[in-house]
Amino acid sequence: MLNIVQTLSQELSISAQRIQNALDLFAEGATIPFVARYRKERTGQMDETQLRQLSERFTYLTELEERKATILESIAQQNKLTDSLKAKIEACLLKTELEDLYLPYRPKRRTRATIAKEKGLEPFVQWIQSLNKPIATSNQTLATEAARYINKEVATAEDALQGASDILAEGIADQAEIRSHLKYRFSQAGEFISQVKSKYPEGSTKFEMYRSYQARAKNIPAHNLLALYRGEAEGILKVELAIDEERILGEIEERVIRAKIKAVRDFYQGVVKDAYTRLIKPSVVKEVRASCKAAADRESIQTFATNLRELLLSSPAGMKPTLGIDPGFRTGCKVVALDHTGQFLEYQAIFPHQAAGQREQAAKTITRLIQTYNIDLIAIGNGTAGRETDAFVAEVLKTLDHKPIKVMVNESGASIYSASEIAIAEFPDLDITVRGAISIARRLQDPLAELVKLDPKSIGVGQYQHDVDQKLLKQKLEETVESCVNYVGVDLNTASKELLTFVSGITGAIANNIITYRNQNGAFKNRKQLLNVAKLGPKAFEQAAGFLRIRRGDNPLDNTAVHPESYGVVQTISADLDLPLSQISDIPAHLRPGDLKTYVTDTIGEPTLKDIMAELEKPGRDPRAEFKYATFKEGITELTDLKPEMELEGIVTNVTNFGAFVDVGVHQDGLVHISQMADQFVKDPKQIVKVGQVVKVRVLEVNQTLKRIGLTMRSTVTHPKPRN
Predict the structure, then answer these.
(1) How far apart are CA 723 and CA 703, in angstroms?
(2) Which 8-state DSSP code applies to residue 592?
(3) Is the dihedral of CA 38, 41, 46, 47 positive or negative?
(4) What is the pLDDT of residue 98?
(5) Is 75:105 a contact under the CB 8 Å cutoff?
């Protein structure tokens, strides 16, 4: 059978020993963030991406080997397992190829071929096959020979010929080589063709660009394919995977027909056409469509994961006293005050967009809250009435000496959070609208800590997210959140249960127990106390400790990514340099080039020592970028305010394969098409922009009817033709 480790070593170009070491660590319960960060010596410094690829491929090959064993046993029980077939099965690296090899031996329901065999027509088929050779000759016609098989169940010679054709057609359809060839041909030369169904007049659907659409299967953009499938599922589009069928039939005939006898060749041509049309084409088209869909899913999910990562790693404004405002016209604005730890202090409803008296009272309320709680940040939701509320707050700030930083915050998913069980558990006595304002404020303080409480699909950075493989989507998004949380690190004394759950080695139950311990015993003073938490044993401690931070604790190393298992070497270096641990940030500067080599041991190599030194240079640092925010143009609050050539500042809210969506402050995101992202050719929008990035754009076009905004980031612009 397959040597999985050796196969992985060849596929990933990584030594077999390092592959085996990584697999051993996974088997011992190590998480990918832990292995990537703290076991570099054993894996040759494989990063998270490589480790996930390894883990996924190992799982695939393991399942493949299990399936091979089942198939080999099944064929052996039928006494049909030859050495050649066994070798082919054992050499398989793809599940689809394996199933093609098994197809002729798979137990089948009753087919036309099996019925023909039951009627005793197999000898007739063997006679026909004997004539399918270049040198074969016969004085007997097919019809004459067929007449010999007339019996109670075979009424005529034509029935015998049809039965023989059915048997031969199934045999052709079961040939793995033919199926493999046709899958390749459809995936390379096949074309997706779509049409809007006749009952939908022109301009009446959201799928107008697919009214008469054609694209090669091998290079159709993922978003186009997913749109086709959605239109098909909604009954609006008719979608076909088409190919030059005459050529395909000719290719099968070349593989199957060897006879020189015209009658036999003609008969086989009919068999081939039947095998292709009735048996091969439906399943091959279905499989290729599924394969194209899976590829589109993976690409879209990767785009979603990339966007989510950028959003989760958005620059935090910092844990400072903050006002959160959930804007509204008729129902007013919900305003909350939070302290520097994100704890709720006070709630007020204000009505600045109604009567003048209410606007004046609202201004007094905002002023009082800012002064009472020494507010440094103001987060304003970007939904309905967002820009109007932003302008109102700006008026209030002009009257104050201490002016907090005012930021428009993307409130996608805030309403979902406010009605969730998580929000209810956090704030059981607060109204749903108040919880929404709290979420908006906390997103400004620390986006990662707040956004982990949401289902990533509700954040609004995906592409056809409801059309892709939901199981794979969930897995990839959870991996992304896990990666981000462990990359940044978590404050053990302030983290929520939801945030703790994504820390390496910590389950939901352990996260609950950490919070219970914290509530009963006060703030953690050192990482060792984690071992007093119920169900948090040595293995969980090993996996989690390095990602948990304790600020102002007993040991300054507890506020770094240095793992407790490496404290000894840091203490040794500190003692050798005659520096106290309270001055750990001075250690790297006192080491000479080459000094690190003297501290290498069997378990701690240079890669880990270099990581430790990098941590000690800036203990407790946040790896996220410096905080920046967009300043929307004053007086531009509605779609009708936009004019071509207008220059604006905005923030990227979503990146897709075809461009980026930018919030310019008018309640409707504009699209910077991929062709308008730079003066040079752009292959991938993600190479130019990322979610959360502040960008300068210029208005190209505004379609009031369709509520579309065309934007450009190019310095030289070719204006698009007006859209209908």
Answers:
(1) 8
(2) P
(3) positive
(4) 96
(5) yes
**Two structure tokens written together for 558:** 């507890």
Q: Where are the alpha helices (DSSP H) in 406-504?
A: 414-418, 421-426, 432-445, 447-451, 470-488, 497-501
> Which residues contact residue 237 at a Cβ distance below 8 angstroms, ignoring those fewer than 6 apart?
194, 195, 196, 197, 207, 210, 228, 231
Of 503, 505, 501, 609, which is closest to residue 547 (Cα–Cα)? 503
From the number of C-beta atoms within 10 Å of its C-beta (0-12, 13-18, 19+), residue 249 rates as middle
At residue 325, φ and ψ (nearest 5 deg) are -125, 120
Dist CA 54 CA 706 (whole Å): 46
**What are the residue ranges of helices labelled H in 234-349?**
245-256, 262-274, 281-312
The three-point CA angle 694-697-698 to 5° equals 165
Q: How far apart are CA 234 and CA 15, in angstroms?
A: 49
Strand 694-703 relative to strand 659-663, pairing: unpaired
Q: Residue 717's pLDDT is what?
A: 55
User: In 3-state terms, what secondary structure has residue 495?
Assistant: coil
Q: What is the structure's pLDDT at 297?
A: 95
Tens digits of per-residue pLDDT, 137-154?
Answer: 888 899 999 999 999 999
Q: How far apart are CA 661 and CA 669, in angstroms?
A: 6
Asked if 439 and 430 count as a contact pair (C-beta separation under 8 A), the reply is no
Where are any strands of DSSP class E within 584-713? 647-656, 659-663, 670-673, 694-703, 708-712
Q: How far is CA 447 from the centre of its chain?
A: 19
**Helix (H) / strand (E) containing 334:** strand 333-338
Residue 405 parent element (H or E): strand 405-409
Q: What's residue 335's pLDDT?
A: 97
Sheet holding 191-196, edge to edge: 212-216, 191-196, 237-242
- List the structure tokens of 88: 């082919």
Count of other CB atoms within 10 angstroms of residue 19:
24
Residue 88 has what pLDDT? 95
**Cβ distance 93 to 64 under 8 Å?**
yes
How far is the C-alpha of 351 from the C-alpha of 357, rounded, in Å? 9
Q: Which portions of the chain are predicted below pLDDT 70?
A: 716-724
Q: For residue 117, with 0-12 CB atoms within 10 Å meaning exposed, 13-18 middle and 19 or more buried, which class applies? A: middle
* Spatial contact of 311 and 446, defined as CB atoms under 8 Å apart: no
Rounded to whole angstroms, the Cα distance separating 664 from 386 reads 12
Judged by DSSP in three states, 165 sits in helix
pLDDT given at position 719: 52
